[in-house]
Amino acid sequence: MNPAVSNLVLMLIGMQVSKRLDFENPDTLFYVRLAFVVGQSLTLLIYLYVRFTILKKNDLTTLKYLDAPNKMAGETESKLITTTVKDYDLKQIDSSIKGIFTGLAMTGFMHLYMKFANPLVMQSITPIKGALESNIVKIHLFNSPAVGDLKRPFKAAPSFLSNLTGGDIKTDKASIEKAETAGTGGIKEE
Amino acid sequence: MSSFSDYTIEEIVNMSLWQRLSIYNWKIEIFAVGAIFAYFIIYKIGASYNDKIANKFVNSIVPTLKENFYQVGVTSSQLIAQDDGQHYALYASGRLRIKSMVAKIELQMRNNIFMWVMEYIVSFFFDSIPTPTDEVTLEFQFDDEASEKFDNFIWAIVTKDKMDKFRTENYFLSLTKTTESNKLPNQFVFMNEVPEMNDVLFTKKLSDNINSNLSTLKFLAITDQPIEKPAKIAELKPTKRLILKLSLSSNDKTIESISNLVNYIINDYLDLIVNRSSFRPELTRKVKKTREIEYNKLKKQLDDLKREELNEKKIEEQKKLRASLTPEEQQKLSKRQQERKQRKQLNRQKVRGAM
């Protein structure tokens, strides 16, 4: 199933489930909290294991692509990224790990400060689902070959925001060759 | 332990200074002094460890420097200059073909443990803050006489690890093409303008030295273009230099392989570059073309800037002129300007009609 569709289905189910749960009951609250902590730790463990395999594989094949310009930051030209498969994978996994922490901070704020318990139910399942569906985990945990959708650099899933944030990643030879010697480096930052 | 609250005011007033001091609760003061002392010890340990790394590296290359250069050290009596607990610099000058050698050592902030830990944590969450490393950058600048003897070009061997960072930090590397080569160990790539230059510049001995510095060599670059992107035409003028970036550690074996590489470069490689890097015109054509393109880009940018400034000045002057006039005069002026505009339009129509 399409991850976007299954996410929607899961969200609806989650909402129904959390509607039926009695969060006033300390026992229920404890189990919901436990599920949340276990879910987050499991996600972190998956990512850390994948990070470990990336480091162990140490794939130093060179990878060149043109990153989409960030239109929100006022960039107009796409920037050439010269990296290795290992560095690319590490960047992906590190941003996923960062994502866990931001999610943790958000849910923590909602639960501890605003006293909502509903997000805990959703947040104990969606991160694991997201992790198992992410390209990088598919490659390193399930050993899927890096072809098709899993070919690096990964294409961003199309969304209504993509027009705002910029175009797509380019990998064709002509644009790479043009951007490679463009002299974009060494700009002094204030 | 007793405290002041156990006594009445009269009792305290009648006490001698010593008695008062002995019943005072010194807990906070002891803790504060202890914390300062502990911080000082940690600072000393960190700073001396940094000193050890810097000195080990410098001492390993000083004999070769003394053989090759007339002056070694920042002044005649002082060998290295230390800015703070983590930045060191070494200078040498007075060698045939070389104007100067500057080595900048940048170490981790071991002297300030809180900042050091913070840097590690923050660097994971923000891409703009680099992970702390121990590095040395050696820059050999060729003198004018030697510079005339060989061509302008950029040629570099760069480690693949974080190579994009080097390309964004160094203007000259962003003018080159990145290519893998089976001549090089798997950890490195060539970043050069013309691949044929590898045959001349990638010597057997250099290859051996790189093989023994797989994890320490960051990049070795020969360049005529600056590190920072030029903002003035004058900065585009080629200054030829060899830049060598290495990571440091206090490990004896690493220091030895690093110093072997540096020694080879100082003793043989610098002269080899000057003597052998004159290439066929077909090869340097591409190099010249890149510089021309960069010159035109910069010139256009500067011209645009100048035009904008001139326009702004004009508008401001007009505003000033208007402000100095009385209301009637202002009206007159705008009337006159409008008339002039109309006349111009009329003239244009006339010309068109005549045609």
From TrEMBL, chain A:
Keywords from the UniProt entry: Membrane, Transmembrane, Transmembrane helix
Lipid metabolism keyword on record: no
Pfam families assigned: Pho88
Annotated Gene Ontology cellular component terms: endoplasmic reticulum; mitochondrion
Transmembrane regions: 30-50
GO BP annotations listed: protein targeting to ER
Designated name of the protein: Snd3 protein
Upper classification of the organism: Eukaryota, Fungi, Dikarya, Ascomycota, Saccharomycotina
From TrEMBL, chain B:
InterPro entries: CCDC47
Region annotated Disordered, chain positions: 316-355
Biased composition (Basic residues): 341-355
Subcellular location: Membrane
Transmembrane stretches, start-end: 23-42
A GO molecular-function annotation: calcium ion binding
Basic and acidic residues: bias regions: 329-340
Pfam families, per database record: CCDC47
Coiled coil regions in record: none
Methyltransferase found in the keyword field: no
UniProt keyword annotations, A-Z: Membrane, Transmembrane, Transmembrane helix
GO cellular component terms, A-Z: endoplasmic reticulum; membrane
Name of protein: Coiled-coil domain-containing protein 47
Membrane topology, record value: Single-pass membrane protein
Record's keyword annotation contains Transmembrane helix: yes
Lineage of producing organism: Eukaryota, Fungi, Dikarya, Ascomycota, Saccharomycotina
GO biological process terms, semicolon-separated: endoplasmic reticulum calcium ion homeostasis
